[in-house]
Amino acid sequence: MQELDHVIQGSESAFTEQEYASRIQRTRERLNTVGVDVMIVTGPENIFWLTGQQTPGYYTFQALLLPVEGEPVFVIRQLEYFNFIANTFIADAAIYQDGDHPIDFLLSLLQQRGWLNKRIGLDKYGWFLPIAVYELLQHQLGPIADTAGVIEPLRAIKSDAEIEKISMAARYVDAGMQAGMAAIREGVDENALVSAMMGAAIAAGSEYVGMEPLVSSGSRSGVPHGTWRRRMIQKNDPVFLEMAASHDRYHAALMRSAWLGRPPAIALEMEKVCQDALQAALDTIRPGVTCAEPHIACQQVIDRAGFSENFKKRTGYSIGIAFAPDWGEGGILSLYDGVNTELEPGMTFHIPPALRIYGEFTVGVSETIVVTETGYRQLGSLTSPLMLF
């Protein structure tokens, strides 16, 4: 253990020590159910939810070793140690140096703790478990239980404290979107819009986000997931804006459309359909309905309007803890056909119906919401779905 100097344990933690202890206990109960003795947690979102550890340095190997019995231990690069102390209440850290092989270090630690003869599980779900790492662990440890899906259902239902953080992020994203809209005018480029959006969201309180804004104009806006590329905005241009903001790694997102001039009739019709489809999805949301039902309600509005070919995606996705490369919660929950998980109070979603004529324009509108005991609550306050300039 290194000298802590002036770094105070848990001083930058997002929640109390008791909150993390409760999360660890609930996870252990689920591990017991699936017959796992020790879980290796590598995904930064799950690590953050369990411990509070957050760092942009998750590109290097980190892992929480969570036994059903006994104290957890965190495997971490030396450079991240003091960050770990500031953000967590975990007492035991196993620190490797840049010259060490992290997986060999992990295996040695498992041996030292007497865990090699235990049933070991690994959270295979997520972005950050390279195939080579998994294959090496499997070769050294033998059969590894797949514990993907142990933590994620716990993350899907947010506490009041988590919802407040998402609500704060929604306020930041409102500020960013308002600034982006205000920056739209002839002769301004896409970069200026994004600069205004990010600057305002950060000034309002946002931390770094899991994914960059999606901002495009003119015919570029007709390509899904387009990002800013210095294009100058011209008269009669469509402008598409979508962004997220973050508070303690909890995200909210927002999508809006704008037009510099009078949109063509088809664009106005599509935008109205998006608004109606969003409202249809929202009106369906309440505890007990499946995740598929809001999507079906949204899709029916779009189908009746004749725009089925312009909408080939899920209606929404769960949102909360996020690290790059995404501002959503990966694949924890989708509002889409065949997803039969029932909605529960505390689940949070970004719902972004959008319609596009590919290579010409995109229009859309979205909200970040939380499921309540009787329906839903919108977490942002920006009301304008389409801005004309």
How many structural domains does the protein architecture include?
A: 2
Low-confidence stretches: none
Class of secondary structure makeup: alpha+beta
By CATH, the architecture of the largest domain is named Alpha-Beta Complex
Q: What is the tally of beta strands?
A: 17
The CATH homologous superfamily of the largest domain is called Creatinase/methionine aminopeptidase superfamily
Give me the strand/helix succession.
Answer: HEHEEHEHEHEHHHEEEHHEEEEEEEE
- The end-to-end span amounts to 60 Å
CATH class of the largest domain: Alpha Beta
Folded structure, characterized:
Strands 4-3-2-1-5-6 form a six-stranded mixed β-sheet. The longest helix is centred in the middle third of the chain and has 23 residues, at 160-182. The chain has two domains: 17-155, Creatinase/prolidase N-terminal domain (Creatine Amidinohydrolase, Chain A, domain 1); 157-388, Creatine Amidinohydrolase. The mean pLDDT is 95. It is α+β, with helices and mostly antiparallel strands and 389 residues long. Helix 7 (160-182) packs antiparallel against helix 8 (190-204). 34% of the residues lie in helices and 19% in strands. It is globular. It has ten helices and 17 strands. It has helices spanning 17-34, 44-51, 81-87, 102-112, 131-141, 152-156, 160-182, 190-204, 265-284, 292-304; strands at 38-41, 63-67, 73-77, 93-96, 120-122, 145-146, 214-217, 238-247, 250-259, 316-318, 334-335, 348-351, 354-357, 361-364, 367-371, 376-378, 386-388. Helix 3 links the parallel strand 3 and strand 4.
